[in-house]
Design a protein that fits this description.
The protein is of the alpha+beta class. The chain has six helices and ten strands. It has two domains: 169 residues, Collagen-binding surface protein Cna, B-type domain (Immunoglobulin-like); 99 residues, no CATH class. Helix content is 24%, strand content 25%.
C-alpha cells in the first residue's frame, strides 16, 4: 500500500466516522447526489466539477508533458468493501487532455479504486492523487508518484469524500544517432539543381503522407523541406533530408529509409519533436559528398 493511499485512507476514515456521527442526529450537510447507485456502472453523468475531486466520485484525467499523445487504456479494479477483494473490474480509454468520472459510491460506505495505466510505448508514467474531505471541506493534493498504478477512494453519505487521479506521461528521449560519416542538409535537397540527386521512389512531388504519418496534409516532400519555423516544421525539414540522404547510395548516412520513417512515426503525434529533430540535424549537417 503506497504512502499516499495510507494517508488517503486515514483522511477518508475520518470523514466516514464523522459522517456516521452526522447521520445519528441533527441536520446532514448538503452533498452531491450520485448519478447512479449501481456498483457495476461507470457514472452516466459527471460530477459538478470536471478536473477536480467531487464527493462520492473517483475522477481520472490523462495528460502529457510537452504536448499531446496517444489515447491510453486503463485497467480499473474496485474493492467495494475495502477487504482486498476486487468486486468489479473494467477498462476505460481516455485521450490526452481529457478527464472522466469512472466510479461513484453506491450502497457501501467505503470504496477503494485501483487504476493501472497501460503505458504507451516510448513514454514513462506518473500519477498524482487529490482527495476532498467532506467533513472539513478541504482538498489535499499528494506528491507526484512515479509508475503506472494509483489508488483512490471514495466515501458516500453526509461528509463523504472524493478522489481525483491524474496520470501524466512523459516521452522518453530518442535514441542516440547511429554511426555514419555523411549527410546532406534540407538546404541542399530543396535546391532545384540538386533534384537529380533524389533517388526513387522519392521525388519532389511525392506526398509526405505517402511515406510518413500524416503530419503535413497535402504537402509534398519538397514543400515540407521549404517550410520555415520550429517545432514540427523543423522536424519535418530534417526528416525529409534524412530520408533522402539515407536513400542515396552516394551518402554514408548510417540509417536506412525504413529507420528514418520509423523514427519520425515514433514521435508523431505529440512526442519529443525537438529531440528527434536534433538527431536528424546532427546527421544531416555532416559532410555532404554529393555535387
Amino acid at each position: 500500500m503506497s504512502g499516499n493511499y495510507r494517508r488517503l485512507a486515514s483522511t477518508i476514515a475520518a470523514a466516514s466516522m464523522a459522517a456516521a456521527v452526522a447521520c445519528s442526529g441533527g441536520s446532514a450537510p448538503s452533498m452531491v447526489t450520485p448519478s447512479t447507485t449501481s456498483q457495476a456502472d461507470i457514472p452516466s453523468s459527471p460530477g459538478p466539477n470536471p478536473g477536480a475531486p467531487d464527493f462520492e466520485f473517483v475522477e481520472l484525467c490523462k495528460t502529457y508533458v510537452g504536448g499531446t499523445g496517444p489515447s491510453v487504456t486503463f485497467n480499473v479494479s474496485v474493492d467495494v468493501n475495502n477487504d482486498d477483494v476486487a468486486d468489479s473490474t473494467f477498462q476505460i480509454t481516455l485521450a490526452g487532455g481529457t478527464c472522466r468520472d469512472i466510479w461513484v459510491a453506491g450502497g457501501v460506505l467505503f470504496n477503494r479504486v485501483t487504476i493501472t495505466e497501460i503505458v504507451p510505448t516510448g513514454y514513462t508514467a506518473s500519477s498524482q492523487l487529490t482527495v476532498k474531505n467532506g467533513i472539513t471541506n478541504t482538498t489535499t493534493t499528494f506528491p507526484v508518484v512515479a509508475g503506472n498504478v494509483s489508488t483512490g477512494a471514495i466515501a458516500r453519505g453526509a461528509g463523504g469524500a472524493g478522489s481525483l487521479i491524474v496520470f501524466t506521461n512523459t516521452a522518453l528521449p530518442p535514441p542516440p544517432p547511429p554511426p555514419g560519416l555523411q549527410g546532406c542538409t534540407p538546404g541542399y535537397w530543396k535546391q532545384e539543381q540538386h533534384f537529380d540527386s533524389w533517388r526513387a521512389p522519392y521525388t519532389p512531388n511525392t506526398l509526405f503522407n505517402t511515406v510518413f504519418d500524416n503530419a503535413f496534409p497535402g504537402q509534398t516532400l519538397l514543400q515540407v523541406l521549404e517550410n520555415g519555423g520550429g517545432g514540427l516544421d523543423a522536424l519535418g525539414r530534417h526528416t525529409v533530408a534524412a530520408l533522402l540522404s539515407s536513400a542515396s547510395s552516394g551518402v554514408s548516412y548510417g540509417m536506412t529509409p525504413a529507420q528514418v520513417i520509423a523514427a519520425f512515426n515514433a514521435v508523431f503525434p505529440g512526442g519529443n519533436y525537438e529531440g528527434q529533430k536534433n538527431i536528424f540535424a546532427a546527421l544531416n549537417e555532416r559532410t555532404c559528398p554529393l555535387n
